[in-house]
Specification:
Layout: H1 5-12, H2 26-52, E1 60-69, E2 74-82, H3 100-111, H4 116-127, H5 133-141, H6 144-151
């Protein structure tokens, strides 16, 4: 799916080209806008399903702020909510604070032999994200068993 030239011109109008991909640049703004649009669509679908089942009393009830870690930055989203409290978003589930690609980047750096402190320094230096060593350890611990199996696999004869 190609994005029309006129739309791109509107998005880039008045922006410094060197800051488009930087922190809080156009890319971060688009990521935030698309994420909030998806979350609102999820709530609309949830409310439509409840209406079709005959429980019509539930409706929108504002939004709450949630800061999540993406692959490139911290992002504050407006998470919509419903009055009955039955809405559970799929994009960013309740109590989830990281997009899945964020975990994949940590695991990739760990697989390349970086220590927890090196990963922490790299994320802060490149993305400006402060992450605790405990979070990095928790993410790498999820794959530790698979890594151990791979390291102890029988090797093929040459």
């Amino acid at each position: 799916m190609a994005i029309e030239k006129e739309l791109l011109d509107q998005l880039l109008a008045g922006r410094d080209p060197s800051e488009v991909f930087g922190k809080d640049g156009l890319l971060d703004d688009l990521n935030r806008a698309l994420s909030e649009r998806i979350l609102n669509a999820e709530l609309d679908e949830h409310l439509d399903v409840e209406r079709s089942e005959g429980t019509c009393s539930n409706r929108r009830d504002g939004s709450s702020r949630k800061t999540v870690l993406t692959g490139t930055s911290k992002m504050t989203l407006a998470i919509p909510r419903d009055r009955a409290g039955t809405f559970d978003p799929k994009l960013i589930a309740k109590y989830q604070r990281r997009f899945p690609d964020f975990d994949d980047k940590i695991i990739s750096m760990y697989a390349r032999g970086m220590t927890v402190r090196e990963i922490q320094g790299h994320l802060e230096e490149i993305y400006g994200i402060e992450v605790s060593p405990d979070l990095i350890s928790a993410v790498t611990d999820t794959v530790l068993e698979a890594v151990g199996e791979w390291q102890n696999r029988p090797l093929e004869l040459c």
